[in-house]
Design goal:
mainly alpha, about 0% strand, globular
Length: about 300
Amino acid sequence: MQQTFPKLSMIFTLSGMFTLALTDNLIVLVSQTSSLWLFQTLRGIIAVGVILSLALIGAVSLRAQRPFWVILRNVFNATALLIYFACLAFLPIGIVAAGFLTAPIFVLVLSILFRGEKAGVWRWGAVTLGFVGALMLVWPEDGNLEWYSALPVLAGLFYAISAIGTRQWCEGESVWVMTFAYIVILGLWGAIGLAVLTIWPVTNVSPENGWVLRGYVPPDQTMMWVTIAQALGSVFGVLFLTKGYQLGEASYVAINEYSMIVFAAFFAWLLWGQTLGTVALVGMGLIILSGSIIAVRSK
């Protein structure tokens, strides 16, 4: 039986969510003029440089105990975050964060289906409540549903798999190893997309979809400082979050991740004046309530 430390886990998770929510809001500054793929490539280079520098002076170790499982876990994690960052260009960050954080619901469902975990009426009811909330979240106020509105929920599914994998596959792995693997894989996704869209560019790209469809764009001063801030924020944010999952059960720890919705929406309002409609707010509330029930009934 693995020993858990719920209070320490909560502190690390909340710290990670605060850091990520703040730095993720900076994407608004570059999404209309730059490229997701260039951003991920540059961010990966900067973050990898920081971690390798720490490793070279002996401050951290990057030796993995189970390299295959570390890579597999972080393929799911990096893919989830790639979808998440793509969505920031055309959906309010509060909605993206809430859709992404349907992950605890998926954690429970996947744990029941593949790990033999038992669930009673309360937790199944919470799953149903959460999916209703997710549907309300992606459904626009004008009723015209777009396919991409569901992408944050897809990211939540991938993230749930990585969350389970953190404890199931990667017990005992250093948080630096886990963070390094995630950043390298996400950077590789960026480099691949950058190469493809630069060699075979998409024509007639609008500001709304250019973030995802542009290849190389000469980085300006704003792009560089946003990328540096995001790289540093992602290193420490993911580091805190990974440590949180290593210190607590996934179904228990996941409730603290809902603070990301509050932090993200607050910073979006404070910095950019973004507000959400009534349907989306109710959906967010149902998702938070669902996760709370799951966490309480999982103790």
